[in-house]
Structures are given as C-alpha cells and as structure tokens.
C-alpha cells in the first residue's frame, strides 16, 4: 500500500480512519471497505468493491461521492448555525490585517486571528494547516496574502474544522440508504440490548446478548468499551455505558420482584425516558442479517473471502458479513465474553433452523444409525 491520497476534503479524522482500516486489512481490501462502509453508515455497493482496492481509489466510488455530499451539507449547516462566530472572525481578521500579510507572516497572522475568537481552535490544527498552506503558496511563488484570502483560510479550515463534531460520519445521515439508529430497548431477563434501526428505509431489530456477562452491580466501563469496538456504528462507548447502567437497574428490579420480566426502550436522543418495551411491528432479524443488509443491499450476495484455514479465529465482523464462513471450524478459546455470546447465539439459531420436530418431513422417533468408522482411533480401544 505504497500510494497516498489526500482525503482532507472529508476531514483529517476520516482520512486517518481510511488508512487505518486499509493497513489493518493489508491483504484484504474487501474487508477494509466492508468495515469502512459500516462505520460510516453507508450501503456497501457491489460496484464499489471492484474500485475500492486502496485509499487512493476511493475517490472513484459512490461511497466517496456520498460522503462528500454529507460532509459538505454538515459544514454548511455549521456555517448557518454559527453565523455570529463567522461574523466575529471577519471583524477580527479585517481589523488586525486590513491589507493582508506576507507569506512569511502567514502562520503568525492565522494564529493571532484564531486566538482572538471565542471559539477554541487547537494550536496543533492551526500549525498543521499553516505549514501546508505556506508550502502551497511558496510553490506558486506568491509572496503576499490578501485579507479576503486570510479570512477564507481561517473560516474554511481551522474554524469550521474545530466546530465539526468528532467522528461526524457517525451522525444521523439524511439519505434513506444509510443505517439509522431509531431506538434502544433493554431486556433484563435474559439480559439483552435490543437495537432498532432503519437500513435502506426498512426497519430492523437486532439483539446483543449479555446474559452471564453483565451483572447487576458489576463494572460497566470495560464492557462498554468492548461493545463500542464492535457496534460503534450505532452507539458510542458513552451511550453503551448509559444503557448498561440502566440495564443493571432493571436487573435489580427483576430480582426484587421475583423474576418478573422487565423491559424498557427509549429514543437515542432521550436515554433517560423509560416505558414499556413494545413488540416491533416489523420482522425481527438477528445482528448478522441486519449488518449484512446494512453493507450489502443485494439479497443473497456473498462477499469473497480468503480461503479458511483449518481453525478460524472468532471474527465478529465476519460473523456479520458471512455467518456460515465465520462459524466454520471456529476457535472460541481466545474470544472475549461479548464475542463468545454473539457466536453462541448464532450457533443456537443455526441449530434450531436444522432441528427436526414431530410433524416435520423426515422426522423419525428414536432414530438409530449404525456408524462404520473409516479409520482406527485409539479412543475406541476397549480396556
């Protein structure tokens, strides 16, 4: 992955995330783009898979065009909602540097104007942008900068960047093709978090199983951190911790009431509100099917994966994308508690799909099968 590309038009944070994922999945660009689309709440389109082989090729994808539109719309909303800050920046800049400044004074001028504003701008961000901008001006043999150029640079880069929310791509997008969180429900017995979301305009529901993992008076910080690592596209670590604490409260109520079922749900914007958790009026799906739909709108489409080794590590991301491949000879010895519960829930679901019950075609009561071993085993030797 030797080539480089500039994604500063999408913000430095997203640029860092892109390179991190492609370095993490160095030999598997499909997996890198899967996770990138999931984290940025974009539908993973099959056409993009052929193009998104490296960070430098992302600019030709529909994902990039969608993210550019979302980022531009977000920055425009920031400008409209902080018009008084922009006016302050203009007043300060024009009063301090009415005739502009020389290129060699550019960094100090930008730093001085930023320091006079009521909005706090990180010094490292100003220094980083100033260094880039001075090099660009020098390469074009420009020796002076007008006040309009100085003002535009101050507003468009350091100022708007400072007011742009961290991980802006996880905010609720306005298009119908993205994964959008609607509400979160809590179930105390068994302990579960139910997450309602929309994907491509359709309602979805999936469950995070915490029975045996979360205790009514145990710590929640580490569990919230682990959940955020695998489900950060829908809930942040702080939100997970809030819901875990509320779930613990419900668990204590269940214990006090003798095991009676307690449930709760709330919208994301009002995590303190509790009421009876209603049964959804749409088909419930498990976590893997929901996230598979979130990244692949084509039903039945399977991602191309590398050949599986004899024993596979527990990969939650693969469980979302291709449960069959994830469960094939999986080794759960090193899996953490949350990952273990996810795999056990999926295994139980697959078992129930294949079990034959009385009345099913092929069901036979007390079926006995004679097994003829094809090779000798020391375990079969009698003493």
Automatic annotation (TrEMBL):
- Gene Ontology biological-process annotations: microtubule anchoring at centrosome; vesicle targeting, trans-Golgi to periciliary membrane compartment
Q: From which residue to which does the signal peptide run? A: none
Q: Name one GO cellular component term.
A: ciliary basal body
Span list, region Disordered: 255-286
Where does this polypeptide localize?
A: Cytoplasm, Cytoskeleton, Cilium basal body; Cytoplasm, Cytoskeleton, Microtubule organizing center, Centrosome, Centriole; Cytoplasm, Cytoskeleton, Spindle
Give the record's keywords alphabetically. Answer: Cell projection, Cilium, Cilium biogenesis/degradation, Cytoplasm, Cytoskeleton
Pfam short name (any one): CEP19
- Main localisation: cytoplasm
Q: Check the record and name the InterPro entries matching this protein.
A: CEP19
UniProt family annotation: Belongs to the CEP19 family.
Descriptive protein name: Centrosomal protein of 19 kDa
Q: Which species does the entry assign this protein to?
A: Trypanosoma rangeli SC58
């Amino acid at each position: 992955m030797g080539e480089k590309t500039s994604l500063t038009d999408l913000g430095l944070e997203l640029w860092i995330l892109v390179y991190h994922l492609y370095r993490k999945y160095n030999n598997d660009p499909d997996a890198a783009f899967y996770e990138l689309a999931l984290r940025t709440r974009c539908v993973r389109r099959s056409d993009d898979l052929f193009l998104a082989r490296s960070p430098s090729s992302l600019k030709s994808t529909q994902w990039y065009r969608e993210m550019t539109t979302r980022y531009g719309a977000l920055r425009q909303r920031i400008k409209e909602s902080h018009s008084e800050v922009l006016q302050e920046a203009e007043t300060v800049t024009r009063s301090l540097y009415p005739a502009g400044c020389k290129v060699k004074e550019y960094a100090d001028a930008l730093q001085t104007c930023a320091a006079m504003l009521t909005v706090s701008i990180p010094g490292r961000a100003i220094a980083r942008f100033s260094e880039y901008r001075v090099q660009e001006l020098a390469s074009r043999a420009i020796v002076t900068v007008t006040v309009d150029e100085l003002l535009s640079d101050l507003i468009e880069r350091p100022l708007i960047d400072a007011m742009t929310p961290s991980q802006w791509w996880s905010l609720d997008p306005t298009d119908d093709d993205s994964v959008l969180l609607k509400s979160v429900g809590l179930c105390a017995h068994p302990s579960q978090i139910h997450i309602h979301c929309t994907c491509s305009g359709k309602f979805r529901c999936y469950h995070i199983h915490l029975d045996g993992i979360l205790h009514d008076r145990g710590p929640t910080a580490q569990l919230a951190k682990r959940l955020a690592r695998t489900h950060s596209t829908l809930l942040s670590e702080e939100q997970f911790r809030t819901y875990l604490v509320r779930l613990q409260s419900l668990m204590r109520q269940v214990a006090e009431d003798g095991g009676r079922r307690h449930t709760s749900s709330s919208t994301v914007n009002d995590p303190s509100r509790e009421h009876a958790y209603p049964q959804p009026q749409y088909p419930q799906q498990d976590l893997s099917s929901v996230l598979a739909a979130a990244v692949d709108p084509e039903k039945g489409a399977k991602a191309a994966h590398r050949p599986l080794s004899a024993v596979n590590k527990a990969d939650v991301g693969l469980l979302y994308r291709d449960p069959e491949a994830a469960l094939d000879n999986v080794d759960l010895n090193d899996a953490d508690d949350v990952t273990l519960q996810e795999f056990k829930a999926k295994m139980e679901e697959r078992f129930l799909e294949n079990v034959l019950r009385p009345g099913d075609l092929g069901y036979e009561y007390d079926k006995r099968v004679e097994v003829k071993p094809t090779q000798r085993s020391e375990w079969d030797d009698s003493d």
